[in-house]
Q: What sequence folds into this?
């Protein structure tokens, strides 16, 4: 296992369409995080999982966003009825439980046209 | 709530110069963790270092060094003898309050090393 992988790397979609991103964390990591990064800003926390349980969601995560992590392995992030404001880089990270460093994937760049 | 301030938006230096990136972390928690990440043009965030709030020892790793001062909530990062490959955006981040809100990142410092 060489690191966190995300798919796709780039996604262009029309406004109103649904999109789904996938993240495969480092296999021995229990925690999985989703962040969003817009141009010129630092990543902003969206949500995280401890194994298969979604333990926290940011207020940034509107009801159009949903994340799952079935069986505590890979995770998916779905955005329904995309809006132009959803255009951003979506980053996935994983870590051991606790205050350990998170390792990030290369991100999925979403463009809503 | 936590806040990370990276006051330097962009720094440009000539290769081989030393450069220090500043970071201030504000939190009400007495126990917290601080991180530095590097984001090269390829976009992937690369972990550099983690520091605990109860450990004020400075750390050196090759050309990189970190200075944590709890009294001023500062966690500064120095690159000695900078190289062009050091050019990237550097993010400082903090984690506290049980980690419920994930990492709080600063806005980043864009470091440009000119040959």
A:
């Amino acid at each position: 296992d060489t690191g966190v992988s995300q798919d796709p790397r780039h996604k262009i979609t029309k406004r109103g369409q649904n999109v789904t991103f996938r993240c495969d964390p480092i296999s021995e990591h229990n925690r999985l995080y989703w962040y969003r990064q817009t141009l010129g800003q630092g990543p902003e926390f969206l949500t995280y999982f401890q194994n298969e349980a979604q333990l926290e969601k940011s207020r940034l995560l509107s009801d159009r966003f949903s994340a799952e992590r079935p069986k505590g392995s890979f995770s998916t992030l779905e955005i329904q009825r995309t809006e132009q404001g959803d255009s951003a880089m979506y980053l996935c990270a994983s870590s051991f439980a606790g205050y350990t460093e998170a390792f990030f994937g290369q991100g999925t760049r979403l463009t809503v046209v | 709530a936590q806040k990370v301030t990276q006051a330097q938006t962009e720094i440009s230096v000539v290769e081989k110069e030393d450069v220090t990136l500043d970071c201030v972390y504000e939190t009400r928690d007495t126990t917290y963790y601080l991180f530095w990440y590097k984001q090269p043009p390829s976009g992937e965030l690369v972990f550099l270092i983690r520091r605990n709030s109860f450990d004020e020892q400075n750390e050196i790793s090759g050309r990189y060094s970190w200075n944590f001062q709890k009294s001023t909530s500062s966690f500064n990062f120095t690159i000695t003898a900078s190289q062009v490959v050091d050019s990237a955006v550097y993010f400082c981040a903090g984690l506290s309050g049980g980690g419920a809100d994930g990492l709080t990142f600063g806005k980043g410092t864009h470091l440009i090393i000119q040959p």
